[in-house]
Amino acid sequence: MSAASFLADRRRWVGRLAVAALATPALVRAAVPRAWPQRPLRLVVGFPGGSSADDIARTLAEPLTAALGQPVLVDNRPGQGGLLAARLVAQADDDHVAGLLLNLHLTVAPWLYAEAGYDPAQALQPVGVAAGTPLLLCASPELPERGAALLRGVAQAGAAWHYGSPGVGTPFHLAMELLKAHAGWTTGHVAYPGNPQVVNALLAGEVQLALLPPTLVLPLWRQGKLPVLGGTAAGVEALLPGVAELGRLGLAGFAYEHWYALAVPRAWSAEAAARLGRALRLALRQPALQAALRRQGWLPGRGDAAALRRRIEAQVRQLRPLLERHPSWRMP
């Protein structure tokens, strides 16, 4: 190679290095994901202020804010029993919108609502369970029996006894129908506008039974005004000392848990969803937050996104056959 050719090749090589050096910072910037979150996180809740879901969201907001370094703002969007909020989250294309969603809206929404507007399995990314609780099987104080004797009486009474709920398709109605199917009961159903009215009906002896959330039952139970036969899932004794799971009272194999979980739209990156999950788990390990949830009648959630997916799949297997057997329960 001549000296002139060598010098020409060297100049071209140096030029290519200079172009690469100029391009490298841009390539590095493109390869590094932007920091998340960059602005406040909107936590959508499907129930109004003062509801259990709102209490849980506001209990979580401060520790999540501390963990994420951006404010977490609770956005109440009540309507259609929480479906409105779930649909809003499922259809969002904003990675700063998340939802605190009821278990039914993460599991059986397509079978429960004729026009759900989303498929949870396709539209939502599970993040983690925020809080869960067993429902409490409560009896009218007008009944003379208690405990296992009363449970035997339910089967003997048949359709002469009734249970109350806030209406067809609510978690309390579906859980009782699961219990009826498991136990072979034929108890009738009476719908009321809400759980407070169900409690009043129990106290007056209008209905004999109801599955109710601990947050509503605890004050009356402590005062000895409302008998509690048992809880539908593990952890009931942590909320009501001395009250056992129904599975230990002759209903072995039955379990149902009422829970709320954080979920985000599919538009979120996996990295952002994982960071929110870590922030949630960090918050739920704080003793002060755990105590606050228990005072509200809830047990702190546990597990990661994979554990929540397994829980979702298990509840779909539990509830889907029931809903398919009763197509008239499907709501608009």
From TrEMBL:
A family per Pfam: TctC
Keywords: Receptor
Gene3D superfamilies reported for this sequence: Bordetella uptake gene, domain 1, Periplasmic binding protein-like II
Keyword Zinc applies: no
InterPro entries assigned: BUG, Bug_dom1
Family designation: Belongs to the UPF0065 (bug) family.
Name of this chain's protein: Tripartite tricarboxylate transporter family receptor
The species this protein was found in: Tepidimonas sediminis
Lineage of origin: Bacteria, Pseudomonadati, Pseudomonadota, Betaproteobacteria, Burkholderiales
